[in-house]
Amino acid sequence: MDYHRAVCWIRRDIRLSDHRALAEATANARQVALAFVFDTTILDALEDRDDRRVNFIYDSLKELDDNLKKHGSKLVVLHGNPIVEIPKLCRDLDAEALFFNEDVDPYAVKRDAEVVRQVKHTHSFKDHVVFIRDEILNLQGEPFKVFTPYSKAWKARLKPEDVASYDPDLKNLWPAKDLPAEFPTLEHLGFERNSLWLEPGESGAQQRLREFLPKLPHYAENRDCFDIDGTSGLSVHLRHGTISIRECFRAAEGYEKWFNELIWREFYHMILSQFPHVVEGAFRPEYNDIIWPGDDHAFEKWASGQTGYPIVDAAMRCFNATGWMHNRLRMVVAMFLTKDLLVDWRKGEAYFARYLLDFDLAQNNGGWQWSASTGVDAQPYFRIFNPYLQSVKFDPDASFITKWCPELTDFPVEFRHWPHEATQFDQEAARCILGQDYPHPIVDHQEQKSKAIALFKVAT
Length: 460
Ligand SMILES: Cc1cc2nc3c(=O)[nH]c(=O)nc-3n(C[C@H](O)[C@H](O)[C@H](O)COP(=O)(O)OP(=O)(O)OC[C@H]3O[C@@H](n4cnc5c(N)ncnc54)[C@H](O)[C@@H]3O)c2cc1C
Known about the structure:
By secondary structure, the chain is α/β, with parallel strands linked by helices.
């Protein structure tokens, strides 16, 4: 390949460092323009005008643009349908080739195929994951359906070059003066400002990683505790590619537990690419026959954090306020919705998809199907979390609970986990009357557990 001019299409890889498509583009073309399309197909379907993801992407792109300006170039930001906008940009710029990193989401696969059809020379690269599709197969040549053997095979296949850095040659960027389009405002895109609790962009990702590295040796013991900031908080950055997954794997070397979590991410992306039917329904189709009896009232109480189960309510209120939730809490609330409230997991999946700042189809679907027991290598349906025990074990002093359910603060610790056991006297002393200041438990866990198991037995 030897091109004069090329476009590098930025999507879920908003960064300059360790960027495979950009490294390849700048190695093979003398002038490379970076372009991003605010995709109206995606944006028009979003329900909230103050969507946090749009804010995060917007601010991360601004930083990318500033960084490009330091190198004499700038970001071309378009607003429309990429199927139209990207081929048009290539024509307008008289670019001979298009470079981009692959995306295995079903929508992206179709979109990219349409763009590839219209542009003469296209080059796509694997960047968002280390291994994908059929790169890790079992001895029968089939995709793995169980995580542990998959992760063993994944590790056995890994060579240093698989996680090596791809560094672009920033001398070969297209000069800003020859590039079209101004950076649109958020309002022009039809969106509003929302507060972000994390720093966007490559600098935000690097800061997170720096802060996390000293915690990495303690990750295995702290990762499940709700009241300790013991995980990386990098999922939002990994989702939008403000950090490279290869950089994370390089940092994870020697720390098996974190390394394995990153492989879970690979596993769910492999599952989505090999079994796209998971987007429509259960990985195990027999569970599509379950008729979930849970109603809208139960779903609303769950979503608004009003179930009377403090750990579930605290987690949902935290989620509604920030767009983020700790991994174990995601499991707790997902299991509560499906196994205690008996609501179809797809309703919970959609609720997460609407608000999660790190929303990723592969991981969200994988996490929901794991918790609902309908998925690949899922939690067996008879092993149902007891929310109270999870709460006592992973939030022993109930500090996470009282942060988000402040009405429980004046109870002694044991009642903060389970205020239902407090006497009228205790409730008055804590200035929290059940049914008035905090709800009674919406269901009885033991009763619902039996009903959930019965539902699955019928379907199995
Ligand atoms: C119901 C449910 C829904 C989920 N939805 C998403 C989602 O939409 N997007 C998303 O990124 N993660 C999702 N997860 C996985 C996990 O909860 C988050 O990745 C994690 O909480 C992010 O925090 P962290 O970056 O501090 O993770 P860390 O503990 O620091 O882990 C590092 C990275 O490994 C990956 N990872 C960690 N745990 C998992 C896991 N269980 N499955 C897959 N990948 C994992 C993530 O990319 C994460 O950023 C979901 C889990 C459940 C149970």
